[in-house]
Amino acid sequence: MLSWVDFAVVSLIVQKFGGSSLADADSVKRVARRIVATKAEGHQVVVVVSAMGDTTDELLDLAEQVSPKPPARELDMLLTSGERISMALLAMAISDLGEDARSYTGSQAGLITDSAHGAARIIDVTPGRIAEALNEGAIPIVAGFQGVAQDTKDITTLGRGGSDTTAVALAAALEASVCEIYTDVDGVFSADPRVVPAARKLEFVTYEEMLELAAVGAKVLHLRCVEYARRFDLPIHVRSSFSQREGTYVLSPEAIETAIAEGRAMEQPIISGVAADVNDAKVTVVGVPDEPGRAAAIFRALADAGINVDMIVQNVSAASTGRTDVTFTCPQGSAAKATDALESGSGAIGFESLVIDDQIAKVSLVGAGMRSHPGVSATFFAALAEASINVEMISTSEIRISVVTRVDDAKRAVQALHTAFGLDADGEAVVYGGTGR
Ligand code: ASP
Ligand code: MG
């Protein structure tokens, strides 16, 4: 099979290694060998690293022990040290293999961000020093997850899992042919292999499908990195650092169509995956007067409190009372804030009571083929019915169906849907341990 990506004679590849691939000294040496092997094949390589193992979590714990509410600037300064440990060690290991490797902080690599500490957005990438190192035949190693704020000049972080975004941003700026994201699983799967042992590795997914999968709990790639890749039409190759196997390519629909037309890929499946997210809570606003302006008051109060609302359902109102119930989901971590916000706005809303339920899961089916294939919903709900799983809420996009179920039913729901849509593979997926970050 030809490769998904058209490699020119000398092509530039950005390789990102996650924390599970850099857990200890031996892993660092193993990754170093892999990088040097890629260079030996004739490619130019730029490397982006995450912090080793659980370093970021350990640094967060440490900060918490020192201060209950650390200043955001200092927390960012602390957290970026994790990636700096990785980059320097990896550069040392590569030097030992006889190659010139040079490590750079995000700031040195030209990752310019806004000043939103803890969740900074990349606003410019000026990788002059990286290009220079490449021209001199060196292998640049860049600390992921960090940048420097354009206005304050302070060091920032991009949010948890942000090294993926660093890698894609650098790859786009350097016009790399592909951004390889190395992790501890073989690629993007049709379901979490820890939940569905028969999950299959996907050969490719579109950016859009990957965005939907990432948003519904498939924790393979940082959401923003996929948005970024889509914007620049940059191929991402998610693969394991523990095997040589081809992983999953994340591409534009046009690139996939071309590959199919040229016989490099089989026909695109209707459904690409099933995922469950157990981190949401369901809030029901009971007894809301059924008249114009009440829903507006509810969601204005939530928006003002900075709550991200996902699904929304309004019941048919009871004719006798003229009142109705409005139910929405939001991250569990914001449920308390949501009820506070609603209670303080209760005058304008006029509800009777609030019910919070955090024992829920959102189970989602994603597939670009849904657009053109009727019957997907019918199969979806039949599978859940056969498994005796009650559906509490429903929402859809053009390429996704999501339902809220009891959290205890989530695993069975994912398994039932995976089987019903013919996604079960023959062999079992390989999971190499680690945290998946
Ligand atoms: N080390 C950071 C984290 O654990 C960034 C990353 O892994 O991408 O979130
Ligand atoms: Mg990490």
Automatic annotation (TrEMBL):
GO terms for molecular function: aspartate kinase activity; ATP binding. PROSITE patterns: ACT (PS51671), ASPARTOKINASE (PS00324). Its EC number is 2.7.2.4. GO terms for cellular component: cytosol. It catalyses: L-aspartate + ATP = 4-phospho-L-aspartate + ADP. Pathway: Amino-acid biosynthesis; L-methionine biosynthesis via de novo pathway; L-homoserine from L-aspartate: step 1/3; Amino-acid biosynthesis; L-threonine biosynthesis; L-threonine from L-aspartate: step 1/5. Pfam families: AA_kinase, ACT, ACT_9. One of its GO terms (biological process) is lysine biosynthetic process via diaminopimelate. InterPro entries: AceGlu_kinase-like_sf, ACT-like_dom_sf, ACT_Aspartokinase, ACT_dom, AKii-LysC-BS, Asp/Glu/Uridylate_kinase, Asp_kin_monofn, Asp_kinase. Keywords: Amino-acid biosynthesis, ATP-binding, Kinase, Lysine biosynthesis, Nucleotide-binding, Transferase. Residues 283-359, 365-437 form the ACT domain. Belongs to the aspartokinase family. PANTHER family: ASPARTATE KINASE, ASPARTOKINASE. This is aspartate kinase. It comes from freshwater metagenome.
